[in-house]
Amino acid sequence: MYSIYRQVHPVTGIESAVYCNLVDPIVKSLVIGGVNYLHIYHLNSDTDTSSSAAILAGNKGQEKEKSQDVKSRRMKLECVASFSLFGNVYSMQSVRIAGSPLDSLLLSFKDAKLSMLDYDPGTHDLKASSLHYFEDEELKDGRCQQIVNQPLVRVDTDGRCAAMLIYGNRLVVLPFRREISPADPSMDGLVCSNSSPVQSSYIIELRKLDERVCNIIDFQFLYGYHEPTVVLLYEPLPTWAGRIAMRKDSCCIIALSLNLEQKVHPIIWSLSNLPFDCCQLFSVPKPIGGVLVFAVNSLIYLNQSFPPFGVSLNSIANISSDFMLKTQEGIRMTLDCAQAAFISPEKLVVSLKGGELYVLTLMTDAMRAVRSFNLDKAAASVLTTCMCVCDDGFIFLGSRLGNSLLLKYTEKTMAELVDNSISADSKKERTDEPATKKRKLVLDDWITSSIDDLDELEVYGSEANQSGSQVTQYTFEVCDSIVNIGPCGQTVMGEPAFLSEEFNTSEPDIELVTTSGYGKNGAISVLQRSIRPQIVTTFELPGCTDMWTITGEEQQEDEDNDVETEPEEEHTHTLLILSRQDSSMVLKTGQEIMELDHSGFSTQGATIYAGNIGNNAYILQVSAMGVRLLQGVKQLQHIPVDVGSPIVCCSVADPHIMIMSKQGHIIQLMLKPDKFGTGSGARLAISKPSITLLPKIVTLCTYKDESGLFTTSTTSEQVSAIPRVTEPPPTPTISTSLEPPLPLDKTSVDDEDELLYGVTSIPKTDAFVKKPEERTPGMAIPVQETAHQPTFWVALCRENGVLEIYSLPEMRQCYLLKNFPIGHRVLVDSFLSSSDPRQGNQEKTNVLQEMPVVRELLMVGLGSKRSRPYLMARLSEELLIYEAFPYHFPPVIENNLKIRFKKVNQNISLRLQRRYGVAGRENKDALDDDDEESWHLNWLRPFDDISGYSGVFLCGPKPHWMFMTSRGILRIHPMNIDGAVTCFTPFHNVNCPKGFLFFNGKGELRIAVLPGHLAYDAPWPVRKVPLRCTPYYLAYHMDSKTYGVATATAEPSNRLIKSVGDGDKEFENLEKDDRFVFPLVDKFSIQLFSPISWEAIPNSRYELEEFERVTCMQMIDLRSEGTVSGLKGYIVCGTNFAYGEDITSHGRVIILDVIEVVPEPGMPLTKNKFKVEYDKEQKGAVSAIAGVQGFLVTAIGQKIYIWQLKEGGLRGVAFIDAQIYVHSICTIKSLILIGDVYKSITLLRYQEDMKVLSLVSRDIRPCEVYSIAFLVNNQDLNFLVADRNKNLLVYSYLPEVRESNGGQRLIQRADINIGSNINCFFRICCKKSDPIVDVKSLGVIDNKHVTYFATLDGSIGYLLPINEKTYRRLLMLQNTLNSHLSHLAGLNPKAYRSVQCDMRQLSNPHRGILDGDLLWKFFHLSLTERKDVARRIGTSVEQMINDLSDLDRLTDHF
C-alpha cells in the first residue's frame, strides 16, 4: 500500500512572534512563526485612514494637532517574505551579534535542535549561520522523546549569550561573539563574518547544582547584572489542586550567574515556598529590575535586593497558598494561559485566557522597590497565544484560536479622560461614516474576522484610580488582522449556495465548511479552493481571439495622474473591441451592448492591441500594419507601419508605446502634446530605437515603475539603508504623461475619501497644485511616504534567452540577464563577473540549444501603491514569476539597475496532458502551443480593480487569478470551473460593476463578477462567519441543503451536583465571596444555518439541558419507509451529562429531522426547522455515532450498539464489547472501524442476515487515536489513523501474512509525521475528468478515493493512494531532492517525516508514504537543476512533471 501526503492549505495559526531588525538595519520587522512556517512583516503607515483627515483639511494653525494625527496613522502589515521549514518551531528569539548591522533569529526544534538564521541580502533569503544539535542518548536519560518539556530558548538581555532548556533538566549555554572582527569594506562583510557568531557551547547539569532542581517550569535572563544571570522557576515535588491540603507552596526559584569564559555558574539567589500554581516568569527591565512571577491565582514580584511582594488575584489564593499575599482590591481574575509583554519598564500588557487586555503597572517607591500593582482593564480582544511589542505604540497579538491582530495603544492621563470621552464620539462618527466607500479588500478582513468590534476595544469605565500615584490608562485600536481558520475541529463538504447555471460540470461542485476558533473567537469558515465567478450573461461569439475594454472620453483632459491609478468608479468602460483572425468588432457597452457600424477604428483586420492612453483622454488601436490614435470614436492620427512583416506585439506604459513586428523589429512611439495647433490636443511621435536586432527579439514589455526600486544611481540615503531590500517606499503617484511631474500639496486635497480609503487609487488631479510643497514645522513625515518620480522601462527577451531592460525614452541598456528561461532562483545582472558565487555555473552548449522560448513577458507593479515590481514570463509549458528587490552592494556597475530578482515559488503548469491526443484539444486553436500565431497572444492580463482587487489574470488551458493587496502576499487561485480561457479583460459597467469579461474554450463570451462574500487575500478564498461562541460539530443535511451546528457558550456556574440515594441527584448552590472565580460550564445548543446568507435560521435552535455536552454529531442515512430509496437523512447527536466523578455518566441519543414548513412573512429562511424524531436517555454516555446499512451505530460506555429506527423509537439489533473509551466510528458498507482513546483501532463487521456484530481484527499496540478514516484504492481497503504524536498511520487487514496471526491483528503498512494534530478526515472520489480537455481519465481511478484532513493548526492536506511504479519513481526523486536541496535552518525532511513514538518500538518505521511538500519543490528548480535531478534517478523531466501533474489533477477538488 503506497500513498502520498501533501499539504494544500498552509498553517494559519500563529504561535510565536519577535520584532527585530532582521532584514533592514533601520526598519524593524515583525517575524511570526506558526508550526513550520515563518513570515516576515513590515509595519507600513497606511495613509488611507480617517485619522489623517485633519492634515488634509488644511488647518495650518494647529501644528500640534497635525503632528499628532501624522503619528496616529493606522499601520498595516505587509508581508515581505515567507518561508516553510521541515520542522516545527517551538521557540523563537532574536539577537544582535557584535559587528552585524542586522539581528539574527534563534529557532529551537524538537527534540533539542537549535538554528541561528541570518538574512542574506544577495538572495533575499534566510541562511543558517550556526546549527546546534543536542540529541545524544546520554542527555535523554533513557527517554525516547520529550513528551512534556519542549526546547525553550531565551536570550540574555544584553545579547551576551543564549540559553536553551532541553529535556527539562539541562541548560545549554551558547556564548556569542563579542569582539568586532575587522569589517570587510564590502557590505557583505557586515552581514556574514568569517568568525562564527556562536562560540563553543556547554551544558549545565541542573541536578548537579542542587538535586532538587528538576521539573523546570520557566526561566528568564535578568536585567542589570554584570554577568548573564538566569533565573529558573521549578517545582521539586509536584502537587496539584486536589492535594493542597497535604502539600502546597511547592515552587522555587534559583538564579545562576553565568561566567562564560571560565564556564562556571554559581548560585547567587534562591527562594522557595512559592505558590504551587506558578506558571510563568517575566524579567522586569531596568531601572526596576527583578522578576515577575505569574501564578494562576496570584502575582508576585521578586528582587534580590528587596523582600518579595505579592498580591492575590482572587479568593482561591487565600486557600491554595500560605505565601504572604496582599489582597488586590477590585480584581477577580486568573493568570493561567495568560500572555504578557512590557510596553515600558513599569508597565506591561496582559492578555488573559478569555481575551481581556489588562495594563499592569508596577508602583515603586523612591528606592525603586515595588510596593503595589495597578491592574486596569483596557480592552477585550482575541484569545492570545503570543504577544510582541512593536515600536511606536503598537502591539501584535498572535493567536491559534482566532485572527491575529495588530493593535495600536495610546496612553491617556486622568486629566485627559474627560476631554477624550467627548472627542471619542466625534472620532467614531468620522471613522465610521465613509466606511461604505472603503475598498472591498479592506473590508474583507473585517467581514471575515471573528474579533470583537472596535467599540469593544475602547476603555472600560473611567473611574479614578484610588492610589496616590499618577496612573495612566490606555485605549487599544485594531489596525490590522491576519485571518486564521484554525483550529479546524470538524470539517464537512457541502454544495455552494450560489453557482451559476452556465457551469455544467460532470462532477458535483462542493465547498468545505469547517469549525474555527474558540470562545468568542468561534466561527464557521467556508473555503473554496477555486474561484467560481457569478455569470451575469453569456453571448456566443465564435472565432474571437482577443478583446479589450476601453474607457469612455474623459471630461477633464488635463488630468496629471496616470490612467492606471485612476479610480475605476470615475471611468466606466464604454467600448469593447473584439479581434478575430481577419477582422475586428467595435461594440458600445452601455445599458445594452451594440455594435458600432461607423467609427474611426480599423475593423478590416485583426487588432493587435487596443486601450486608453493619455490618462483616459485618448484611445490607441494597433493593427497589423498601422497605429491609430482616437478621441472617442473619432480618429485623430493614423500611422502606417511597414517594417517588412506585420506587427504582432504591442505594450503600453502611458505615454510610451512599444510595438514589435513578426521579424523582431522594434518601433517606439510616444504620446506628446500637439504643439502645431491641429486641434487634436495630442499626437504620436514615432522613432526606431538603435538597438541590435540579432539575436531575434521574441517578446517585449513596457513598465512604469512607481516603487523607486528601478534606479541606476546609488545615493547616500540608499547606502545608509543597506540592506533595506524588501520594503520599497510606497509612493503616491504624482506623474503625468504630457507634463512634468508636480509636487503634492497635502493641504489642498478636495476629495479626501479617495485618499483615505483607496488602496491603489489616488486623489483627483485638481488636488495637485503647481507650487512648492508646504511643510509644517516639526511635522514628522514617515520614510515610507517619500515620493518617487515614476520611471519608464522596457524589457526585451531574445530567442537565445537573453533578457535586456532598457530605460525609456532614451533606450539605454541598464540590465542584462543571460539564460533567463532557465529559471534560476535568483537573477543577477550579467554585467557582473561570472565568478559571482550567486550567479551559478555557466550552462553548457547543449542546454542552451534546448532552452525554451519566452512566449510572453509582463512586468507589473503590485501591492500597496504598486510598490512590489514583479516580472512574469510565460514559456511553452510553465510560468516564471520573479519579484524585484534592491541590491546596492559592490561590485557596482555604473548606470545599471541596482536590483535583483527572486523567484516566486508556485506550481502553475501550462502543460496539456499529451496522452489525450488531438481529440481532447479540438476547438482550442487559440490554446495550441504549437501554433506560432498564438505565441503573441497575451495570456497575462493585469487588472486594477475587479471587486476591489488588483493583480494579474492568467489565461490559457489552466486559468489562474493572481491577487495582491496591501498585505503583500501574492495569492494564486485557480478558476477551472469553466475550462480553458482564451482571453480576459476587466469590465466596469452599470450592469456589471467592477466585473470582467472572458471567452471560454467553446467561444462563449461571459460577463461575470467575483462573488463578493469571499475574501481572496487568503491561501484559499474564504468566508469566515463569526458565531461568538465555540463551534464543536457540523453536519450537512443534504435534503434541505442546510447545516446543523453544535455550539457552546461558557457560563460561570456555582451549582454542585451530589448523589442522593439510589442513583438520584440533587443540585446545591455554593455561596462564595465576591472574589471567588467560579468554574465555567458549557451550555450547548444545536442551531440550523442556511448557506445562502450564513445566518442562523430563526426559531430553529434546539437547546440542550444544563451540564449536557454534545460528544458527537453526524448526518446519517437511516432506514425509512417514507422514501423511494428506503433511506432518509437525519442529524443524529450523542450527548453526555457531565455531572462530575461522583455520579454515573448518562447520555442521550437525539435524532433530528429537518423539515420544510411555510416560512414566516418576510423571513424566507424560516422554511426549514428541526423536528425531534427521537430523544431518550441511554444507560451511559454516548461517545460516538455512525450509520451502517441504514442502522445506527453508537458507542455507549464500553459497548458498541446497533439500533434500528422504527415507529419513532430505537430497537436494539446487536452489540459487542469495546475497549476503554471509543470516541470515533467510521463505516463503509458492512465494516465498522472504531477508534479508542488509548487502545488504537478495532475492525468490526455487521452481518444483517444473522443480525450479528463480530470482531474481525484489531491493532494490539497502544495508540492514542485522534481520528480515523478509510483509505480506498480500487479493490484495496486500508485504515487510516491520526494519533497524538501527529503521525498518520496506515493499517491493512492481511490474514495471509504471518505477523497478522491469522487475521487477528491489523498490520501497519505505512507511517508519516505531518507536524500537526488531525481532528477529522473526509473522503471523496478522485477527479475523473479534466475540465480542460473534458475527457474522462482511465478507468483505473474510478474507485480511488482521496482522503482529506484538516488540522488543529489551520492547515488542510490529503493522503492519496498511488501505484507502486509511480511510488518507486517518486521515492527516488524524494531521496534525490532530500540531498540536492539546501533546507532552511539545516533541517532534514527525512527526520521530520519519521514517525514519532512515546516509547521505543520493536519494529522499524514502515514509511510507505511520500512527502508531497518536498516532491513539489521539483517545480521550484531551474531547468538545469531539473535535468540534473532527473539524470540522477534515470528518468526524464517530462516524466516527473507528468507524474506530479497527474496527482494534481486527481486531487483538484473544491
How would you describe what is shown here?
The protein is mostly beta strands and 1454 residues long. It is built from 16 helices and 90 strands. Helix 12 crosses helix 15 (1423-1433). It starts with a strand and ends with a helix. The model is unreliable at 48-71, 183-193, 422-469, 554-569, 716-785, 833-847, 915-930 and 1334-1341 (pLDDT under 50).
What's the topology here?
Elements: E1 2-9, E2 16-20, E3 29-34, E4 37-45, H1 53-57, H2 63-71, E5 75-84, E6 89-95, E7 104-109, E8 113-120, E9 125-133, H3 137-140, E10 152-155, E11 161-166, E12 170-175, H4 188-191, E13 202-205, H5 206-209, E14 216-221, E15 229-234, E16 251-257, E17 267-274, E18 278-283, E19 291-295, E20 298-303, E21 306-312, H6 316-320, E22 326-327, E23 339-344, E24 347-351, E25 356-364, E26 370-380, E27 386-390, E28 394-398, E29 404-412, H7 414-432, H8 440-447, E30 473-482, E31 491-494, E32 511-516, E33 523-527, E34 534-540, E35 546-551, E36 573-579, E37 584-589, E38 593-595, E39 607-613, E40 618-623, E41 626-631, E42 634-640, E43 647-653, E44 656-661, E45 666-673, E46 682-687, E47 697-705, H9 716-720, H10 752-757, E48 791-798, E49 803-808, E50 812-817, E51 826-827, H11 845-849, E52 856-862, E53 868-874, E54 879-886, E55 899-903, E56 940-946, E57 949-954, E58 960-963, E59 971-974, E60 981-987, E61 995-1000, E62 1004-1009, E63 1022-1026, E64 1030-1037, E65 1042-1052, E66 1055-1060, E67 1064-1069, E68 1080-1090, E69 1095-1096, ...
Parallel strand pairs: 1-90, 21-22
Antiparallel strand pairs: 1-89, 2-3, 3-4, 4-5, 6-7, 7-8, 8-9, 10-11, 11-12, 12-13, 14-15, 15-16, 16-17, 18-19, 19-20, 20-21, 23-24, 24-25, 25-26, 27-28, 28-29, 29-30, 31-32, 32-33, 33-63, 34-62, 35-36, 36-37, 37-38, 39-40, 40-41, 41-42, 43-44, 44-45, 45-46, 47-48, 48-49, 49-50, 51-55, 52-53, ...
Helix pairs in contact: 12-15
